[in-house]
Amino acid sequence: MLQGFSEIVIDSNVRSGKACIKGTRITVGDVLGYLSIGMSFAELMEDFPKLTEEGIKQALGYAAAREKRIHVSGV
Fold first, then answer.
1. What is the topology classification, in CATH, of domain 8-61?
2. DSSP-assigned states of every residue in 4-23
3. What is the pTM of this model?
4. Where are the domains of the chain?
5. SS3 49
6. Collapsing DSSP states into helix, strand and coil, what is residue 2?
7. Interatomic CA distance for residues 28 and 52, integer angstroms
8. N or C: which end of the chain has fewer CB within 10 A?
9. DSSP 8-state secondary structure symbol assigned to residue 27
């Protein structure tokens, strides 16, 4: 479990160590991708019954936190 993100786990044996929603093989990137094409939280939870609203929110928060830490030089 990651500090502040109880629904996000990283396990080197699951999805090549990508950040996933706890209890699933759904990555944070998967969630972002589905939301970016217009899927709603309700649609995601319908398509993936183990996914919760809290898990989706934490995926967004985790991605935002990572974005804040990334520094690209020369841009």
1. Arc Repressor Mutant, subunit A (1.10.10)
2. TBTTEE--TTSGGG--EETT
3. 0.86
4. 8-61
5. coil
6. strand
7. 13
8. C
9. B
